[in-house]
């Protein structure tokens, strides 16, 4: 404790705890250490720091505060490995040794402090500071994601209105998808029709290398017409079904719009047309009241 001075402990007290502990470590001429891995030295530094805070809080002069830290160090060193009975005896003897350095009030305060802290938790102090500890430490670096910055409340929407817009968007998407499916089917049927006709014409060309008779030509034309009608029928059936589906989607959208929630109460004064109507009505009422008063006045004069 040769490095501790009254000015040094005064600065330790004036600083915040993290800075005060660091300054105390420098005054003790300790090398920098890992607070997590070297828990013994960290607790020992806390013990010295708390003794300074105690002494200043009890009104010890700065010179005596240095002696309190020295007293703490000697007590911890001399009681290492002792029983609690021996520790109490050592504490009593040390208090007697320091009678010349503290007055009676401060000596009693020092006795109470170490009895209520060191002696009361003596086994814990001995376990932590009196023997080597096997440190089994695992450190995992975990990335902490901060919550996203919330959007301005002014840009927010009513929940029911937001749900309505989402439902309308889904219905619109479904309608567009059905229209797209019709176009895709039309293109697919057109390609299938061309393929079937080409296949039929190729078969006729392979079977006969001569001029077709009237009956054969009619059959070929009928088959071509049949292929076209078949594709057209399939397309019309799909278009009819799709039309009904689209109408149903439009009906759902119309129903949703009719039952749409009102996000904010309507303000009569906020609508220009209604403002003009109110002004006109007030003017008419005022004119009627004025005419009525004038009529009464003229009747009184006539009488």
Automatic annotation (TrEMBL):
Signal peptide: none
Chain residue ranges for the region called Disordered: 268-303
Entry superkingdom: Eukaryota
Basic residues composition bias: residue spans: 281-291
Regions of compositional bias (Basic and acidic residues) in chain numbering: 292-303
PANTHER family: COILED-COIL DOMAIN-CONTAINING PROTEIN 189 (PTHR28457), SIMILAR TO 4930578I06RIK PROTEIN (PTHR28457:SF2)
Protein name (record): 4930578I06Rik protein
Organism of origin: Pipistrellus kuhlii (Kuhl's pipistrelle)
